Amino acid sequence: MSYVDEIIQQVKEKNPAQPEFHQAVHEVLESIRPIVDANEEAFRRDAVLERLVNPERQIIFRVPWLDDEGNAHVNTGYRVQFNSAIGPYKGGLRLHPSVNIGIIKFLGFEQIFKNSLTGLPIGGGKGGSDFDPKGKSDREIMRFCQSFMTELCKYIGADTDVPAGDIGTGGREIGYMFGQYKRIRGVFEGVLTGKGLTYGGSLARTEATGYGLLYLTDELLRTHGETLKGKTVVVSGAGNVATYAIQKAQQLGAKVVTCSDSTGWVYDPDGIDVAALKEIKEVKRARLTEYKNYRPNSEYHEGKGVWTVKCDVALPCATQNELDIEDAKTLVANGVMAVCEGANMPTTEEATKYFQDNKVYFVPGKAANAGGVATSALEMSQNSERLSWTFEEVDSKLKNIMENLFHNIDEAAKKYGFEGNYVVGANLAGFEKVLNAMTAQGIV
Ligand code: NDP
Ligand code: 2IT
Q: Ligand 2: does its nearest atom lie under 6 Å from the Cβ of 124?
């Protein structure tokens, strides 16, 4: 059995009931076969793949907190410090009832290669909790965040591990966590990114993942002689990534006709009203059912359905495996030209292959959504030099990073004989740098 196949099997055996982690490992290891096969003996001797798929450290802890009635609740907290070959661990914190160790490991594993692709010095990590922020009061959120950080603060720091936001963790949660870190550790340092602007946050970090996704999508289309102007775009999600993806797509001349949350989806034939979306989601923290009150011409549907809408470009920006083979078939039948992932692993492996077989340009999340973490790294730089850059400065750096990133994965795909396969290109380019750093640092 080849080394790659052996490790894929080993990961499944040693990590049972972690299907998302298996999926992420499978996709990456399949892609890097050309490098592994060419170096099989040396890689086996140095256990390169075993070291790649086993996190450096996994921290699991109890998070007790009190609700507004004084009742105690217990959630589980996680931080997986996956790989620090190229820099301090970096990656978000997810707060969602579906969180478990397998989900955090899949996200942490993806983060290694994503962070490598940004070209910035950040290693891979991820964390979170099975806490459900929905329906909680502001004080309950604060008490949860404080309890979570009371334990997590022992393991993180500006030069060791720098968490940030992800699903369920936005500016409010980062603020409460930062306050508790500072209080316990007694240091004001850039230990988290996505901070508020009055205490070390970076301009454009809030917008960065969505904007970056569109800078990359625009560059992809231009490379193929197209632009976003006049294109119909379908977006899923209604959170941080989706909101700013919609905004930038509109600025670039596209018409975005959908968004969604976990209960339903909106079709707005006149184009999504971003101001209304922000008010519903960021201010009222309400459901998308409210959207119709702002836009009487729009439709609200229960359940899943954005992928049934005819479009040129599809941008999944909600969660993992939200776009399956049936969705892919519908999108292809409706003439989709490009699919770029704003979320992490939103497309199943079967659906991904279907897009590629049908000549749809497909860019995986670890490349397409890297603008968020890249801008987090820019926030770290600003914190280190105790300066703040202007919005334009950060935004232009972000644009540059995304354009370079796209050409790097395009080149890597060509170099190894997989022209146009951006999944393979992203995994190979991301892996090359991590491998180089791991090799130079010895067996650690
Ligand atoms: P938010 O919490 O701001 O928004 C998430 C959105 O996705 C919400 O509309 C939510 O609906 C929906 N959603 C979440 N889980 C599910 C589910 N299980 N089924 C259906 N819908 C769901 O998160 P973000 O926008 O920050 O993150 C979205 C995706 O982007 C995630 O995959 C994240 O890992 C990825 N990402 C985020 C980055 C960032 O900087 N924030 C950077 C790179 C990637 P509801 O409100 O009803 O739950
Ligand atoms: O998935 C991701 O890249 C994020 N949630 C952002 C991580 C970060 O450290 O900004």
A: no
Q: At what angle do helices 349-357 and 325-333 cross, to 10 degrees?
A: 20
Contact predicate 236/259, CB 8 Å? yes
- What is the percent of the chain where pLDDT is above 70? 100
Name which residue sits closest to atom 9 of ligand 2, judged by CA.
91
Q: 383: CA distance to ligand 1 center in Å?
A: 27
Domain boundaries, the chain: 55-189, 208-368
**pLDDT confidence of residue 68:** 98
**Short-list 56, 281, 246, 73, CA closest to 167:** 281
Q: Which atom of ligand 1 is nearest to the CA of 288?
A: 47
CA–CA separation, 308 and 163 (whole Å): 36
Asked if the 208-368 domain carries CATH number 3.40.1190.20, the reply is no
Tokens of 321: 């495996």
Residues known to be catalytic: 126
Judge if the beta carbon of residue 352 lies within 6 A of ligand 1.
no
> Which ligand 1 atom minimizes the distance to the CA of 263?
47
Q: What is the pLDDT of residue 33?
A: 97
pLDDT digits (tens, 9 = 90+) for 427-437: 999 999 999 99
What is the CA(319)–ligand 1 centre distance, in A? 5
Q: Which CATH code fits 55-189?
A: 3.40.50.10860
Q: Which helix (H) or strand (E) holds 379?
A: helix 370-384
CA 322 to chain centre: 14
C-alpha 91 to ligand 2 mean position (Å)? 5
The string of pLDDT tens digits covering residues 167-191 is 999 999 999 999 999 999 999 999 9
pLDDT reported for residue 364: 99
CB of 344 closer than 6 angstroms to any ligand 2 atom:
yes
